[in-house]
Amino acid sequence: MPRKQHLTTSQRKQIRKREDQYIEELHTKTQEFNNPKATYFQDLPLSNAVLRGLKDASYVKLTDIQRDSIPVSLKGNDVLGAAKTGSGKTLAFLIPVLEKLYRERWTEYDGVGALIISPTRELAMQIYEVLIKIGTHCSFSAGLVIGGKDVKFEAERISKINILIGTPGRLLQHLDQSVGLNIDNLQMLVLDEADRCLDMGFKKTLDAIVSNLPPIRQTLLFSATQSQSLNDLARLSLTDYKTVGTPANVSGSQPETPETLQQHYIVVELADKLDTLFSFIKTHLKCKMIVFFSSSKQVHFVYETFRKLQPGISLMHLHGRQKQRARTETLDKFSRAQQVCLIATDVVSRGIDFPAVDWVVQVDCPENVDTYIHRVGRSARYGKQGKSLIMLTPQENEPFLQRLKGRRIEPNMLNIKQSKKKSIKPQLQSLLFKDPELKYLGQKAFISYVRSIYIQKDHEVFKFDQLPTEEFAQSLGLPGAPKIKLRGMGAIERSKDLKNAPRQLLKLNKADENGEFEDKPKEARTKFDKMFERKNQTVLSEHYLNITKSQAQADEDDGDFISLKRGDHQLKEEDLPPLIAPQSKRAVRKALSKKASLASKGNASKMVFDEDGQAHPVYELEDEEQFHEKGDAMSQKQEFLTKEAEIMAQKDVEDKQLAKEKRQEKKRKQLEALRREMEENESYYSEDEEPTVLLGTGNLSDDMDEHSEGEDKEEENESQEQDEQESDFEEPPRKKHAAHREQKQDDGLLEVEEPETLEDLESLTSRLINQ
């Protein structure tokens, strides 16, 4: 390997001077750039390192949003960018980030130079992967901080990060905890899917992040549907900005959805949506599709039930309540699959680039047109073909279509072929009846959907009072509609804020008035304590209670499964029923004393039953009259002894016969073993040898007869004969036939076998000496 050359001071100065001149030329080209018809990335005033990274990642041609926004961003202006889904907005802000840090000669000691905020973890990971691809020739460090990862691992490395990508909650957590995070020199702030980052869910979190950022910076906002609220822009210090994007986003003369997207809608009752969805999947088994629901509980229920119904296509599910590892694996598998159905929530509706999605199906009506645009944008990306389908109830049909028409979106109506439609209500009812867990999931899905309709702000589209709750519950396989406790809108908003608030902020809110935490020791809680503290784990409605014939009634106030009606279990005498009240002290002592109880009941005895089914004690004693009727004592004694002697003689004959059979079996096995060994040793004997004399005739039946002749002798002689016969088989065959191992040949040579033991070797030595 070549030795590393050490540059002198003059050489380093020359290199630095050339880089300064090159960067100055880039600044000049950027300010003078005016080419609205640029087609390729090399037509833009970009550095060589960025151009090589784009070429290696196969990014060559510019899209409309990239051609319009990148020159404006390179000039240092704040940008409010809007473009259709799948138009390449990620590169539109990543390229200016790399160029900005390169031209500022950024190093790892300068801290974070660019902060990119994404509303979802999946989108943040996608941005990070694209940055790694195009930044291979740049010397900047990039980091990804999202929920579900190890905070300590991120905090140890965040001090050396130049480009930080993350979700709002985790970024705010690092701003509060990580000492090494330095954002005092921040150059750029990027908000991808800015309208989602600025809405109510992330409002407080984003305000807390922005308050810690330096006021002098460049800000880039990108989304497919852009919010231009003055209050939102003022929160980000976005006062002097330039709006870039397609004419559709500026003038509203064209639809905001891709032109290659074929959009359809059908009108279906709420109770028939699952039947329609299952039938749609069965007729599109060769497609790659995404099915959107409004809540994670609906996604979980539909995924588990459809898995058991087996529509014939691979099923996946993705929602925000899954572990981060499961979400990442699902994204990877779905991206690589060709024929698959992904059941998901809006967590993947924004920015995620799935390749070759054929259909986007929206089972639940989106909350607004922006959500509709983001959902259908998962298909027909980068000019490719795609299709979408939305299911609208008769109450949602007209109002929502009017809102789509106001944004230049007019989907075509489809008619459902009744021959292709299949009802799965009986199967769902059977599944939920057999599996209480599925029933619980169905009840949770029902409640989550009803609550999602209740909290919608657009009451013209979402009519809560007209929901067919009973029919909808039956379509899910439930015996009836569960009871739902609905809260006011103020409580719902507070619960949303509490859900999206970082845990560290919640911990700070629990501090006392002096800002100090109460130092109270925590009680140890095991997994069993947590298990028994859970409530309502299997049922939600009174129908399940009726089926199980349980007498417990659910408390409508706190929702407990079993309510404790009485805490004092010390029974008093007046509370006892008359049948079990004690009558006297003597009766109490008798009931508690085992000895006194047996005195009245008698000792327990074991009984046997005769052939007639009559019970008798195991041992029955005769009286004197019955005994004398059978004769005197001596005659009965002699009769008993005679009978027992006959039984013993019969047993002896059976034992001798069994012993004989065992000896014959043993002899047969020994003879078989001897024959096998003689066959193996045939090579020891020559053709001139005399036949070997064996013990026995070699005929198994003859040997058995010879041995059986001595069966009538006395027992001692029999055992002696057996020992003598067994001793014949204990001698190894090799020693029995030792006379045949050595033979004199005509030529005077002595053939011997190879000695195997020390005794054989000594014997061979003595014979050789004597010879």
Can you walk me through this structure?
The chain has 771 residues and is α/β, with parallel strands linked by helices. Among the domains are: 31-251, Rossmann fold, CATH 3.40.50.300; 261-475, Rossmann fold (3-Layer(aba) Sandwich), CATH 3.40.50. Helix content is 46%, strand content 10%. It has 31 helices and 18 strands. The strands form four sheets. The protein has a seven-stranded parallel sheet, sandwiched between helices. A seven-stranded parallel sheet has the order 10-11-9-12-13-8-14, sandwiched between helices. Strand 15 and strand 16 (615-617) form a beta hairpin. 28% of the residues are buried.
Features:
Rossmann fold, 7-stranded parallel sheet, alpha/beta, single chain, 771 residues, 46% helix
Break the fold down into its secondary structure elements and pairings:
Elements: H1 9-32, H2 48-56, H3 64-74, E1 78-82, H4 89-103, E2 114-117, H5 121-134, E3 142-145, H6 151-157, E4 163-166, H7 168-177, E5 188-192, H8 194-197, H9 203-211, E6 218-223, H10 230-235, E7 241-245, H11 247-251, E8 261-267, H12 273-282, E9 288-292, H13 296-309, E10 314-318, H14 324-336, E11 340-344, E12 359-362, H15 369-376, E13 386-392, H16 394-406, E14 412-413, H17 425-434, H18 436-454, H19 469-475, H20 489-500, H21 503-509, H22 527-533, H23 542-547, H24 585-592, H25 594-601, E15 607-609, E16 615-617, H26 624-629, H27 633-680, H28 700-708, H29 715-730, H30 733-736, E17 743-744, E18 750-751, H31 758-770
Helix pairs in contact: 3-4, 4-5, 7-9, 13-18, 17-18, 24-25
